[in-house]
Fold these 2 entries.
Entry 1:
Amino acid sequence: GLPKQVTIWEAGPRDGLQNEPGTVPTAVKVELIERLVDAGVSHLETTSFVSPKWVPQMADNAQVMAQIRRRPGIHYQVLVPNMKGFEAAMAAGAEEIGIFTAASESFCRRNTNCSIAESLERLRPVCEAALARGVKVRAFVSCIAGCPFEGEIAPAKVAEVTAALAAMGAYEVALGDTIGVGTPGKVRAAVEACAAQVPLEKIAVHCHDTYGQALANILAALEVGVASIDSSVGGLGGCPYAPGATGNVATDDVVYMLDGLGVETGIDLEKLVQTSWFISDALGRPPASNVARAMKAK
Ligand code: HMG
Ligand code: MG
């Protein structure tokens, strides 16, 4: 059967906005985060402490962290690629970090300018420093169902990288279908390969919806027993180093599906959809979420 309850990791403020062509004002990012938490989101990717030359959209990371109202019990995770990012995140008061690498060598190089092995070596001291000060570490593996440069990716490679991140101390590893090419059989195979190496409770899925497969892929993962799902309000997002990648699956669509299945998320769909329209209006286009558009039309 399906899990009774799942954790939704809202990626909109980070994955969603990192790829915007224009500058999104810090005040809009902060209001987005506050509205998401008001709607019942308890786990969110708040911003990233990566190089502003690589991702200018996240250059206001410290301001975002300073301006949000940090409410108790909410996981405000920030993405960091190296020690420099970790130190900046700590200075900004982060209590939880996200680290990232890939199951594809070519993508790893494009995204972080190093090999997979080098990225793991770069992340090791980050994990050690985080754990030493009680900072929680979540991890991401990109290209788990295909790579824009290499095509097919073996589930065994995904499992190897996932196991390495868990061994370093990540309490959960999100399997990223970065370019949304996965279909349910592929995502299931990647999850199962990982579950043979690390407990299923440590596995999450992070599906982009480029090919419209994300909800089906998530359902396949839920059926295997995954209970942690990444998504982004209004379907915002994409990775600037993954050509053609569109947004994450819309949180609105995931919550609608889970409500229908009787799986608890703690999120109020009505308020979430209002948030989806808030950020879409700020960006000057309708949400990518079918549910958000349908509910507004009602
Ligand atoms: P590099 O150029 O090899 O790094 O980039 P470096 O260590 O040689 O440093 C170069 C310059 O960047 C130096 O500045 C550093 O100080 C600075 P300079 O001396 O030239 O003035 N620098 C930094 N500045 C601020 N914060 C930092 C930082 N680090 C170095 N943390 C690096 C290597 C990893 C830094 C770079 O490649 C980078 O920032 N990459 C991040 C790319 C990114 O953010 N991608 C999107 C997020 S991942 C994603 O979306 C996928 C995910 O959603 C899952 C999925 O969908 O699959 C998570
Ligand atoms: Mg992503």
Entry 2:
Amino acid sequence: MADPYYITTAISYPNGRPHIGHAYEAIATDAIARYQRQLGREVRFQTGTDEHGLKMVQEARKRDLTPRALADEMSGYFKAMAEKLEISCDRFIRTSDADHYRASQAIWQAMEAAGDLYLDRYEGWYSVRDEAFYDEKELVEGEGGAKLSPQGTPVEWTAEETWFFRLSKYQQPLLDLYAAQPDFILPEARRNEILRFVEGGLSDLSVSRTSFDWGVPVPGSPGHVMYVWVDALTNYLTGVGYPDDVELYETFWPAHLHVIGKDIVRFHAVYWPAFLMSANIPLPRAVFGHGFLLNRGEKMSKSVGNVTDPMELADRFGVDALRYFLLREVSFGQDGSYSEEAIVTRCNADLANNLGNLAQRCLSIIAKACGGVVPEAGDRTEAEDALLASVAAAEAGMHDAMGDLALHTALDAIWSAARDANQYFADQAPWSVRKTDPARADTILYHAADAVRRIAILARWAIPNGADKLLDLLGQHGDARCFEALGHPLAPGLTLPAPVGVFPRLEAPVEA
Ligand code: ME8
């Protein structure tokens, strides 16, 4: 396999259980990783947990646990979620892993060797919730005159001796980077925010802490642990063997895409490339800041009590339904809203009534009327030509959309062919044609089955379970599930297993 591709999610803070925003990011990134695999690329996909920092220390204290015990427990939930949601990661990294300490210390030493780290006293505002330092000018006023970060989180005054990173030195190199690589920050709106921020000037960044010890020790500086974002961002390098596994590193670094949420674009598009420039490490090709998921249009928060457990949704509606809904309904890059009713409506329309119904009807007739063997196709009529053209247009539309990371548009293109295939089947009515012209009925059944096969291959990166079940029912294995297989027709004469329903109808939630 050639053409390596490295993609990552952000790593989540395991200071609580995963919520649907975490699930969304993992699903979207997984969809892109699977798409790239179906193209035949050698993909490496990493996700995991970000376990150091003050936020973890404080939450552990509240629960009377050590930070490590808290991380062990909660990281387990994130791992279980990844498994349940069919997240096809090659590594689930924990920043408490030993090789991650090694990588973080190596990048630190490289930045130090470049003359970019110096010891000084830090005095300024810190938000534990964001694990971020803010300039006075960035703060906003909250209720009762309280000072809040631009994200609306509380800030506290901190004063301690820390190591500083010469971020100010990288203002111009960063602006040059954004100009030379307009696709470095995606989508465009996020790029503009970052441009404005960097053009406004960059202060040096405090990159170590002495007031707690839950972090990666700063090499040669007892009492200092690294600022959590220095080690967190380095996870992307750890996962490809930096600094020891040269072969893995050279195969996959620089990363093709870091998928993250819109609230942490600054860390990925400013700090991260600056650290890498300093350490003389090539930069990732792109950072995509997706939108936030809102519960019925409202921000999720523990106090409002509308934080949804993604595992419950997956149990209730099925993994494919949850994945399909999130990928189809949210414009990738923008905020999106979800509700149980919306999941039911969307999935019943597109999965149960459309693709699932077509597959079920077509395969049952093949089972009954053709002895479960894919029939021979006779001469094509205009109807078959139109169906084939619709599926070919879906394929082209999907690739175009995926080139722009417009996952929702890619699915829309595929489902336009699914609608056409359903219409074809209803119009051609093979069950009634069979009575007068069995050869023509065979042709219709063949083309309907081939359309299902093609649509399942096209949609497999989004709904891996259901698509694979359809492809099982169509006798398609292994390589026959990659996009390359779209270049070949379905083989007549293939004996198929007994058909079963693939996408169950979902029940609407009962009003409380
Ligand atoms: O930020 N909708 O961790 P995190 C969509 N550890 N995405 C959401 C979301 C929502 N409602 N809420 C959060 C961190 N996210 C750091 C990252 S990376 C080196 C370190 C996204 O657990 C969020 O934007 O707060 C981020 O990309 C990811 O979930 C983890 O968030």
